[in-house]
Amino acid sequence: MALCARALLRRGHPPKTPAKVFLVPGRIEVLGKHTDYAGGRSLLAAVERGFTLVSTERDQPRVWVEALDLRDAVDFEIRPDLQPGIGWTNYPMTTVRRLARNFSELRRGVDVALSSDLPPASGMSSSSALIIGIFLCLAAANRLQDRPLFREAITDLDALASYLAAVESGQGFGRLAGDSGVGTHGGSEDHTAILQARERTLLQYRFVPAARERTLPMLSGYRFALAASGVQAEKTGAMREHYNRASALARALRDLWIRSGGAPAVSLAAALRSSPDAADRLRALLQSPERLGFPPRDLAARLDHFVLESEVLIPAAANALAEGRLDRFGELVDESQRAAETLLGNQIPETVELARAARRLGAVAASAFGAGYGGSVWALVPETEVERFLSEWRSAYAADFPGRAGKAVFFSSDAGPAARRVA
Question: Going by C-beta distance under 8 Å and a sequence separation of 6 or more, which residues neighbour residue 304?
């Protein structure tokens, strides 16, 4: 907070200028690999790292953002036809453009200095956290929560999370028109975890629409050990295409169901839940000569992964955790990791070996998380053993991937609190 405040002083703000401070965490996807945008389930927590944003209001419709960690800043006008930049500036500029399009009352700008201790592009949702942070700064400056259109469209935190996910993906949200977003076709899992997290609590959600199914207390005496692999899970270029393809496969399955006479469905999950034999009927349809748009085996693997992860493993793992059956919880998480490797196909050697090494070193459970094609792994370990575990985990990774070890980040975290304003 002090570093951010000093950045605003350097910009010329007098010392007594009123400022607002927001803390926005990243998130841990315990389970729920590529399930949310298809209406599936996720098991989530916030991480005890994230963004600190210090914001002052401006009378002019302009936004200035300095990212202290990147030693970079951007200054732009609040306009509905704003053309976002590339790299990190894409996220604040896309957020401001969408808000300007949806809310004509957005006339007051902000100066924002921000800093983050999240490993960047690590699968811990730094991009979603940044979007949420910029939104919170602008919403506070413009009193958006008091505007009739905002209150009508965004009725609670789940709706706000879904709206901010639509800002990121570019989708419309009720009467609030969409645009191009940042270029990824994701869901609202990240935004929901960041806005709804509770300390020492795991959340089980289903999506499209977002609805909390249950809360689970964090296991007493345990913490998450986290390893950011050093392979950045960038959602740009070829990696964006891989990410978006998983989303497109899920939509293609939903569309196939509807074209073949199935009940109308807003998501793949809705299609599967509309009939007890829906999954089997979809598998049979994949054997037909109909033009599918994707190879049938790719669609079959996507279907099998979604059914296993969302409909089988997450409810079973949550039950095992609630009942204290740690061996069973670990087995179910192992199955989720294997399915990501063999069916979803979004794992890389580094994340695969990090998960396996964590289990060999005694973790109750371990799994890669995030969009994939890079990113991080969590491991659940006794808090009395966490420092030893992290040291051994780091050493094992350095031995297996010496070229990655220098960029890898290892740390521990409890299930942390949600995004919040600091008084």
Answer: 339, 343
